[in-house]
Amino acid sequence: MRTPILALLFIWAISPTNLFAQFVHGKSGNYTWPSDPAVRQKLEQWQDLKFGMIVHYGLYSELGIVESWSICSEEADWIPRDSTICYDDYKRWYWSTISRFKPEKLDPESWARYGKEAGMKYLVFTTKHHDGFAMFDTKYSDFSIAKGVFKNHPRKNVAKEVFNAFRNEGYWIGAYFSKPDWHSQYYWWDRYATPTRNVNYNIDDNPWRWDQFKKFTYNQIEELMNGDYGSMDILWLDGGWVAPARPGAKERLGKSYKGSQDVDIPKIAAMARKYNPGMLVVDRTIAGEYENYQTPEQGIPGEQLSNPWESCITLGGDWGYTPRQVYKTPANIIHKLVEIVAKGGSLLLGVGPKPDGTLPEEVIERLQAIGKWTSKNEKAIYGTRNAEVYNDGNTWFTQSKDGSKRYAIVCFKEGEPAPTTVTWKGNEPMKGSSIYNVATGKKMQWKKTKDGITVTLPKSLTKDEPAIALELTPAS
Fold first, then answer.
1. Is 225:235 a contact under the CB 8 Å cutoff?
2. Residue 456: what are its φ and ψ, rounded to 5°?
């Protein structure tokens, strides 16, 4: 049974279509500002951070496939699965990976160091993806990294090791947790087939079973929040299809109606904040008071947003580790970071460690290259806020929180020599103002023109320079 499956995994790994096929979540339609002053204060502080790392790591890393989606029976080109293998046999084979997944070179300290070098300020780590495999030592399930073949290793509680390593480097700590759990008999019950990602039984007809799932979810999240894993800043909840039923759902769906898939987020949030006052709760794509910031996935909103948000985007083609993955260039990521920050958001960059617990060399190289730029231009990015005029062509604008200084960040086209001058409209300095190169502190020559202002750029800019940040300082 394993031979054809492993052969198919190799085909997936080298397939160009697999490199970019993704399921993409948009953002919720409306935003509700939190009413708790402690949460509002925490949110204001989070908006200073701008750049974070999300780490997908689990059984799918061992298999080198697109997260845990292949055990979902839905048919889509981004969910590859061997058509010659019985679906139930495939699921059993996937579950059995617990007997092979041994990250014996687990090195979250290096993940944190390289991320810090890149300029990342916060972490979101997958404590449990949709497959239900816990990357922490939970007492509510045997399907855990701490109870498989890795159980006798001193670092078996992987989530705790990761959180401690990143906390020691000064990161904010966020716990990703999947609301659906495809391994739980309280969500995917073996009595029935599992035709979709959703709960596979009628909740109205089986209220006890759904109530058990709600308790199970609450208890596992409490294990992560109660202090055993240190202080937490963000609870990042995925699986937005597990949600209270929308008005009219029963009438629209008929026999397929599952009842309200409400896991009681208000109760979970209250518990999490009892242990971690002011904690941010991000119930993804579910508009309301428990989506403290929005999370558009694999894309950037077309215009500036006034509410808190982050774009979660992969460094490669997939969230987790897959072999022969094509990674984005450092310039591509820097350009995305600049655009996102100018539009009022943060970038959460997806990184997938290898099965052994180390980062791929391509990831390390890109993080280091990104850091060469962010370390020299940090004050144009971190702690900034929206400028009213935020873009003109390849030039993006940010400003200090008090509005006393503005920054123009000019993105250069990859593979082409840097221009000798740049011209923009909007955010034009008054006569007597100065413009400085943020990276060097040197004053730049500029003049007003009929097209706005023109700045003479340094001759020392190299062909591979991704962008230049300029500080616009008003005349004293």
1. yes
2. -85, 120
Return the beta strands (E) in 69-158 as ranges.
Answer: 122-128
What size, in residues, is the chain?
Answer: 476
Model pLDDT for residues 33-84, shown as the tens digit of each residue: 999 999 999 999 999 999 999 999 999 999 999 899 999 999 888 888 888 9
Helix axes of 361-374 and 330-342: crossing angle, nearest 10 degrees = 50
Helix/strand/coil for 324: coil
2-24 pLDDT per residue, tens: 233 333 333 333 333 333 333 35
- Which residue matches tokens 């580790």? 321
The runs of H, that is alpha helices, within 276-391 are 330-342, 361-374
Which residues make Cβ contacts (< 8 Å) with residue 476, sequence separation at least 6? none
Q: Which two tokens stand for residue 41?
A: 């204060």
The torsion angles phi and psi of 342, rounded to 5 degrees, stand at -65, -30
Q: Do 69 and 23 touch, CB atoms closer than 8 A?
A: yes
Question: How far is it, in rounded angstroms, from Cα 168 to Cα 162?
Answer: 10
Whether this model's pTM surpasses 0.85: yes
